[in-house]
Amino acid sequence: MMTREEELQQMLLLAQSIGQGVSFLMTKLLAEHVKMQCADREACMVETREMLEQALSSFWLHVPGKDGDEYDLSPLIRERVKMILDVIEGEARHTLNLAPPLKERH
Fold this sequence. Notes:
The chain is mainly alpha-helical.
């Protein structure tokens, strides 16, 4: 029988693996979308990223605390998802031979 710590470690590894799989699929999806939808791939990449950011802005997550209060984790989760989107966009740009995003060109 596994200890609670071993169970949590196993759950963490599974969550990380799922995250890597979703990131891989999102990268492929973004690159294929840009290739198929637009003649101007740079403009399409920027527009698609803006759409993803807009969708993310409507995400919210409130969780109950042990003290009975509710906590809004939305800003934290949005910020972390944006970091993942940055990586996904970078990989898709590399796949399409596009320049890095403007914020990385400085």
